[in-house]
Predict the structure.
Amino acid sequence: MRPLLWGDGTLWGDINAYWGSPASYVLEPGDENYRVPAPPSALSNSNSTHKNMSNNPTPTTRTILTAVASGIHAGQLTHGASVGLLHHLAPSMDAVLKKLEGDPDAAPLSAANKGSQLLYRECVDASGDAEAALKTLSDGPVKTWLEGYRVLMMGIHGKKANDGWVAAGFTTGSTSVPKNHDARRALLVAARAY
């Protein structure tokens, strides 16, 4: 018999694990009342995962992670001296949290006032807006101009792909306007040089 401890690999459904007070324990082969576990079923998925008892995982969402860090910081301020906290003291943690969440005492609308979380979100939003504007431009005026260029090249080089089409900037074996923006941009550069 061995004591049952958190994180020792004991599974929740272990038929030899006993929870109780004053102690919890796991029976091992040779112990009285030990039961031989049933063999895994042939129908069960051999790739299934079992949950071990452990601490909560670290959050991956930035907002939740920042909230947890704030809670830890509050605990440092409240209990740090009484428990003899020696590392990662409250002043250094406070500086880090202000970088993340923003410092209310910094100049309004400054990067320090907004904090890295808000700046990150603003950058994501701005890049999304820029990508949407680029897609609108690429699918609108750029595509229209390239389709006109294609018609002009058909009058010069014919309807079938050949070396003239390649010289005009179209990909080998193709006379169509590209579908993605990077290829359209390359065709625009080649058309300018042509």
User: Anything to note?
Assistant: The longest strand covers residues 2-3. Strands lie at 2-3, 17-18, 25-26. The chain has five helices and three strands. The first helix runs from residue 62 to 83.
